[in-house]
Amino acid sequence: MRRLCELLSIHYPFVQGGMGNISSPILASAVSEAGGLGTIGTGTLSVDEVESLLLEMKKRTKKAFALNIPISVTSNLKGMCELAVRHSVPVVSLSAGNPSPYIPYFKEHHMKVICVTASVKHARKAELAGADLIVGEGFEAAGINSPLELTTMTLIPQLVANVKIPVVAAGGVGDSKGFAAALALGAEGVQMGTRLIATKESPYHERYVKKLLEATDTGTVIVGRSVGKVRRVLKTAYADQLIHAEGTGIHPEDFEAMTDEEKHLIGAVEGRLEDGFINGGQISGLVKSIPTVQELFTEMIEGAEQIYENLIKEMNDRYLKK
Fold it and tell me: What distances in angstroms separate CA 269 from CA 23, 144, 159, 217, 241, one per listed residue?
């Protein structure tokens, strides 16, 4: 954990996931101010739109933060990379595509580079290209997912065994137990998205937050398998529409139109759950409170510490003192 925190200039080993077009400097700055790494996602936004978010972010915090650039969906990739450099963004997170051609550019400007991967093969390539750390994202995660469908539990230890740079676990983590489990698997920190939706600093629609708090263990669903666009969302009326459309053999372009970032904004920001979707990871069923980001981080650190103390005591009492 210390290696990760020193690398990113943060206090706690917690990274905010990129939230694309619904990225908010309000939430991201709260994450950074609480000691984690807040993140602004570029999604399909224009360079000018992202620049406005960065300017607000820099007004709200002087602490480290990241810019997530999803390579395959960013409309002006060159312009977005140049924007990150122009604003001296401390950390760039690259996802949804091959990061190798872009890593040297950011390294030349002394920026830290995170690569989000879902396989050992891709993690190795990112490390060879100069990545500073790997986020291993399991199939439990919200939003766009890898078609490989590896779970966090199986992915993380394999990544740790195959790369020398720090590995951060993403997907299915949102409390002290998940954090402790990720550390046991060899991760040096965790990335969270869904859990941060239900925090006091969250700027998202109350219907989104309510739906998250009401979610059960089966409260999310995968859509898009039939068209090669795997995405995990919360179960809503609009999710039912997506499932029905797939069942009738929807064309990939039509499905993409039904799941574009505008539809996400409609659900997450406007709260129109009949007309737009809301992302949600499998951690949703465990989210039952709305703490501040600082309270969440403190609970996760203290809770994980207590878990390990209890485990050590039980191991000593039950096995090592016989």
Answer: 10, 18, 35, 24, 19
CA distances from 279 to 1, 220, 265 (A): 28, 9, 10
Structural element, H or E, at residue 221? strand 220-223
The DSSP secondary structure of 230-268, one letter per residue, reads -EEEE--HHHHHHHHHHHTT--HHHHHHHTSHHHHHHHH
Model confidence over 70-110: pLDDT tens digits? 998 888 999 999 999 999 999 999 999 999 999 999 999 99
| This prediction's pTM | 0.94
Q: Which of 314, 114, 290 is nearest to 212 (CA)?
A: 290
Provide Rg for the chain, Cα atoms. 19
At residue 117, φ and ψ (nearest 5 deg) are -135, 165
Residues shown for the chain = 322
- Which residues, 6 or more positions from 91, have their beta carbon under 8 angstroms from its beta carbon? 8, 37, 64, 65, 66, 67, 111, 112, 113, 114
Question: H or E stretch including 67?
Answer: strand 65-70
**Per-residue pLDDT tens digits for 134-165:** 999 999 999 988 889 999 999 999 999 999 99
Going from N- to C-terminal start, the domains of the chain cover: 9-203, 206-283
CATH node for 9-203: 3.20.20.70
Q: What distance in Å separates the CA atoms of residue 318 and residue 73, rounded to the nearest whole number?
A: 53
For residue 72, the one-letter residue type is S
